[in-house]
């Protein structure tokens, strides 16, 4: 089993996405997003899936939902660092990994 670490930007993005969903949509939508993230993290921990290359060196990406992409990297064979939960409607020029 792998260990998943969250960096500061991933934590910030995650909470900003939840806050947005609560403000603009509903608690149900926010809970759905939280469950989708937990499902992706579980898959990463179990090593059940390999997500596609992101185009950034050694960084992979996973679409959590069509609006949000998770960027992550392997620190070691059994350690993964979550980098960003990027809103796909933002300009990718602003994406810092």
Brief synopsis:
The protein is an alpha+beta fold and 97 residues long. It is built from two helices and five strands, in the order E-H-H-E-E-E-E. It has a single domain, classed as RelE-like (YaeB-like fold).
What percent of residues are in strands?
A: 25-35%
How many H/I helices? 2
Count the E strands. Answer: 5
Which homologous superfamily in CATH is the superfamily?
Answer: RelE-like
Topology:
Elements: E1 3-6, H1 8-24, H2 27-46, E2 52-53, E3 59-65, E4 68-76, E5 79-87
Parallel strand pairs: 1-5
Antiparallel strand pairs: 2-3, 3-4, 4-5
Helix pairs in contact: 1-2
Explain what the structure shows.
It is built from two helices and five strands, in the order E-H-H-E-E-E-E. It is of the alpha+beta class. Strand 2 and strand 3 form a beta hairpin. Helix 1 packs antiparallel against helix 2. The two termini are 25 Å apart.
């Amino acid at each position: 089993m792998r260990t998943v670490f969250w960096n500061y930007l991933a934590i910030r993005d995650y909470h900003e996405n939840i806050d947005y969903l609560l403000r603009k949509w509903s608690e149900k939508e926010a809970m759905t997003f939280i469950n989708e993230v937990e499902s992706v993290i579980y898959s990463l921990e179990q090593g059940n899936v390999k997500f596609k290359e992101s185009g950034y060196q050694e960084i992979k990406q996973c679409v959590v939902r069509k609006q949000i992409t998770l960027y992550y990297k392997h620190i070691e064979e059994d350690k993964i660092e979550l980098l960003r939960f990027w809103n796909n409607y933002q300009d990718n020029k602003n994406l810092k990994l």
